[in-house]
Amino acid sequence: MPKALSRLLIGALVGLVVLGVIVFFVGNAWFGLPVGAQGPEQPIAFPHTVHAGSVESGGLGLDCTFCHRNVDKGAAATVPSVQQCMFCHSKVTGEGSTSPTALAEITKLRTAAEQGEPISWVRVHRLPDHVQFVHDVHIRYLMESPDVIVNSTPAIRQDGTVDAAQTCSTCHGQVATMAKVKQVRALKMGDCVDCHRANNAPTDCAACHY
Fold first, then answer.
1. Separation of alpha carbons 18 and 9, rounded Å
2. Angle between the 82-89 and 102-115 helix axes, to the nearest 10 degrees?
3. How far is CA 190 from CA 104, 193, 194, in A?
4. Nearby residues of 162 by Cβ (< 8 Å), 6 or more positions away
């Protein structure tokens, strides 16, 4: 076989392999299922059913923004610091709780606070580094467009808007009913693009990749 033809065939083969890899990753980004769909184990059990669950169901009924205080003000939702948790748990120790694990889990938290150590929470919802998702922009839109909210039935105010906390279910599901938080929506490119198209939001690359 002539050397020129041999090089051409090798080049074509390498090109096909590279193309196949690109197609695989793009397809996975568009259609792939979420990783860890059952939710990861956390260093300290944090049952949202207790903290954010309705009072009728035995929960405290805390608003999402009570702990995730930056979610409607900036790009990141932010995870509460140990000091923020201790705002309540300096008094709520778990002693006398009907839960068999409450005392042990709260003790872990209080120990971390005493030692000045952060808690290494395992991230549940993750986007690629080249994707930017600004929480406050999306939340403001959903607050003013409650008919777009899914996975819950928001309580609409007289002016036609809803509280920030009632928008979270659209991407995160009914977290208040989860003893262990899990990812319920793919949060892949196709999911985001479909939502943007349905709501007449920008679909050009620079909207999310910058």
1. 14
2. 130
3. 42, 5, 6
4. 142, 143, 146, 149, 154, 155, 156
Residues 6 or more apart whose Cβ sits within 8 Å of residue 4 = none
Nearest to 75 by CA among 137, 126, 128: 137
Contact 190, 208 (CB under 8 A): no
Query: pLDDT digit string (tens) for 119-168?
Result: 999 999 888 888 999 999 999 999 999 999 999 898 999 999 999 999 99
What is the average pLDDT value for the chain, to the nearest integer?
88
Place of tokens 């300290």: 44
For 84, the enclosing helix (H) or strand (E) is: helix 82-89
Show the DSSP H helices in 93-188 as ranges.
Answer: 102-115, 135-144, 169-172
- Give the per-residue pLDDT at 17: 77
Relative orientation angle of helices 189-198 and 3-31, to the nearest 10 degrees: 60
Query: Residue 86: CB partners within 8 Å, gap ≥ 6?
Result: 109, 110, 113
| Alpha carbon 124 to chain centroid, angstroms | 6
Torsion over CA: 163, 169, 175, 181 (sign): negative
Q: Which residues contact 55 (CB under 8 A, 6 or more apart)?
A: 61
